[in-house]
Amino acid sequence: MIHQYLLVLFAFRSCVQMKRWFEYEDHICIVFEKLGPSLYDFLKTNSDRPFTFKLVREFARQILESVAYMHNLKYIHTDLKPENVLLTSSECRKFVVPVLEGSSKRLKELRVPRCSRVKLIDFGSATSYKQRSASSIVSTRHYRAPEVILGLGWSYPCDIWSIGCMLAELSTGVLLFDTHEDLEHLAMMERILGRIPSHLIKNVTGKAEEYFRHRRRLNWPEGASSSRSVRAVQRVLQLDELLEKYADDYENSFLDLLRQLLKYDPNDRPTAEEALGHPFFRGH
C-alpha cells in the first residue's frame, strides 16, 4: 500500500498529481499526470542558456512551497535537482539570437517557456524524519550537502542546500559543483563559499576524517587525486564571481538568498518557509 502521507503529498498543487495506482505482480504501479520537460532537459536543449531571473524567482517560489509542504508532513525529499522539477507545459517561445563561438558569431535558436509553472516529482527517495538513517548517503552528488559528506547526520536542511545548488545552476546554466569525488567536492565548496567552519571539522566521522589535516583544515591540494583535480578546483569561481560572469541581470538579494541556502552549518540554513520570506521574492 502507498503510505497515506505520500497520498496527501501527491495531492498538493506544486507536486506531481497521482491519477491512480494499482498492483501488478507484487509491484505498485502509479499513474501520474502528463507534464512537460524537466528544467535540466530544458537547459540542455537550450544550449545551457540560463533562465531569466523572473523565471528563476517563480521556479524558486514553487520549489520552496513544495518542499515546505513536504517538511510539514515530516518528509525529506533527499534528491532535489533540476531533473526532478518539471515544467507543466512543453510550450515555449522561440527566437533567434547571435551567439559568439570563438572569434565568430552565428545565429542560434533559443527558447523561453510560455508557462512558469513547475511541479516537483520523484519521491522514490523521500523518507520520513523518524525513519531516516542519518548516517546514510543521500542526494545526487552535485546537490549533496556538506553534512552528508562529512558524516555529521542529515535532516530537512539537506533539501535546502540542494535547492541552493539548483537555483545557482538555473540562473547561470553552470553546474555549481561539477565533481565526482568527496575531497574535490569539499575543495570546490571552500573555493566557492569560503572555509569550512572549524566546529564542523572537529565533529567529522568515518572516512571524512581523512579529508582533513589534524582536524584543522582541508587536506587540499596535498590530498588531491591528481593535478587535473587541482586544476579543476582552481578554475571554480566564487559565488559572486560566478553570477557576475553568467547571470547578466542578477540581483544582490538573489546572491544573499543563495548564501543563506548554502550555509555550511545546517542549523544556520533557513527553513523552506523562512526562505519564502526572503526579500528576493518581493522583487518583480
From TrEMBL:
Keyword Zinc: no
Keyword ATP-binding applies: yes
Classification via PROSITE patterns: PROTEIN_KINASE_DOM, PROTEIN_KINASE_ST
Assigned keywords, A-Z: ATP-binding, Kinase, Nucleotide-binding, Serine/threonine-protein kinase, Signal, Transferase
Domain of life: Eukaryota
Signal peptide: 1-18
Record-annotated Protein kinase domain positions: 1-281
A Pfam short name: Pkinase
A cellular component term, taken from the record's GO annotations: nucleus
GO molecular function: ATP binding; protein serine/threonine kinase activity
Protein name: Protein kinase domain-containing protein
